[in-house]
Amino acid sequence: MFRKVLVANRGEIAVRVMRACEELNIGTVAVYSEADSDSGHVRYADEAYNVGPARAADSYLDHEAVIEAARKADADAIHPGYGFLAENAEFAGKVEEVEGITWIGPSSDAMESLGEKTKARTIMNEADVPIVPGTTDPVTDPEAVKEFGEKHGYPIAIKAEGGGGGRGMKVVWDESEVEDQLESAQREGEAYFDNDSVYLERYLEKPRHIEVQIVADQHGNVRHLGERDCSLQRRHQKVIEEGPSAALTDELREKIGEAARRGVAAADYTNAGTVEFLVEEEPGRDGPLGPDANFYFLEVNTRIQVEHTVTEEITGIDIVKRQITVAAGEEIDFAQDDVDIDGHAMEFRINAENAANDFAPATGGTLETYDPPGGVGVRLDDALRQGDELVTDYDSMIAKLVVWGEDRDECIERSLRALREYEIAGIPTIIPFHRLMLTDEEFVQSTHTTKYLDEELDESRIEEAQAQWGGDTGDGGASDDEESVEREFTVEVNGKRFEVELEEHGAPAIPTGDVDAGGAQASRPEPAGGESGGGSELEGEGETVDAEMQGTILDVKVDEGDDVAAGDVLVVLEAMKMENDIVASKGGTVTQIAVEEDQSVDMGDTLVVLE
């Protein structure tokens, strides 16, 4: 077994992995960016290493920095969690080449085969697993997209090879959207997964999203742990997950489970993974979907899933521990017939978002109150404590509430109780939205599809829920009045020297450089992005278009001198792993562009000036 595991992730999943390590008597190492220096996973780990600045590409996605941290810590294994580098076959391959360090996950070869969606589709097709009509080779030319549309019809899904969870996926509704959507999907793939390769699929308009949890060892054993229903989604992002699916008969779930096992075995896959399927809904059905329902392979997630907790609650199997023991060469210690599904479980993603404001992510804030629920059948995966500052540089999910009941009805009632108990003040969350959904007829009857939230739910109901149960959401950010000062010290512990940085809040600024007797130097305000940004000083008059949240500029759509109309896209801003179009509120002429591609900006920074 391993001595020490470095967890190449942050937040609740990092803590989840560390807890599994602790139960196996394995030491833990955290990595963190400058934005995460005070975060919960850093507090929990036995030791922690800074891997770079806030921008993920310069820290959590920096291959060499993460591997170097593992060397410094003398870790003998790396667990990637989910997101970031978890499905990056290149990074997995680099770890495999490092002597003395084991990659906790599938091999880089299996990740490349199944993580790149076109290869996965080929493997599944050869294993007699149904697939949605689509391409088996990457697409780079808009003409290829148009030809596919002529053959199969619209809408078409353009998907990033390394994508997942809706990121890197764009829907083309007609030929006029081909160029823009292809470019956007390629850009998201490059930004989020370091891979701009994309492929095409026929877009199923109202399916259910069913996924099967798989665990496979190095001795040829493959087990499936039942299915999860992830059909409640917003813009392809899962919001509530549950298992088992109330929409499937036992015959259909067995067919889907065996298809997943077949496909994974054909790929020579090891460790944990999830095989995702789209199941065609039958409008007006009376009872669950039967064995003749159409289902299609969607993708394989070659990592632990956010919603793995649902499966753990209904099977009693610790999936993260199995990841670690399988990576250490141990054989799976249970047979397929030993997998029993007990009761029903749901997972609620606690996102720092305002559901009534188009699920806009919080731009800052302090957890003035953080009082999670408890009781029978209630599990909380988080990395928070009261008084923490909200870190807004990454995903907006701050915790996961997982509830188990003897059946779905009890699970819903218990979930309502737990959500009522869950008290968070100082930032907005989507807890009111979850409470609404647990009383929604479509969800309670399990007749919703992946399009229900985007196309059918009355948004005024979300606004009413937020008004009724939203509570104290704070002012959206920390106070600008309190100064923060960093001081550096050299200390010696047991004969070993350490350089220590202490951050002091509310202290007077430490003068640097030349200071006259009259007081501290004054300085000019910085352009967007501060000293490290690539922007220019603002000149002249005009209406400024400012960043509404912290993020990174992915694309500048206009040039100086362009005439724009109200609603025209000026800049594409990436924030919380989502692309956000920054549009003109009224017409005018672009007189200045204050930012450039790949530049980091803060909320309130000026992006464009219009006259």
Automatic annotation (TrEMBL):
Cross-referenced InterPro entries: ATP-grasp, ATP_grasp_subdomain_1, BC-like_N, Biotin_BS, Biotin_carboxylase_complex, Biotin_carboxylation_dom, Biotin_COase_C, Biotin_lipoyl
Region (Disordered): 466-487, 503-544
The protein's name in its UniProt record: Acetyl-CoA carboxylase biotin carboxylase subunit
Domain of life: Archaea
Residue stretches making up the Lipoyl-binding domain: 536-611
Keywords of the record: ATP-binding, Biotin, Ligase, Magnesium, Nucleotide-binding
Keyword Kinase: no
Cofactor: biotin; Co(2+); Mn(2+)
Positions of the ATP-grasp domain: 121-328
Record keyword Magnesium present: yes
SUPFAM superfamilies per the UniProt record, alphabetical: Glutathione synthetase ATP-binding domain-like (SSF56059), PreATP-grasp domain (SSF52440), Rudiment single hybrid motif (SSF51246), Single hybrid motif (SSF51230)
One GO molecular-function entry: ATP binding
NCBIfam families: PRK08591.1 (NF006367)
Biotin carboxylation domain mapped to chain residues: 1-458
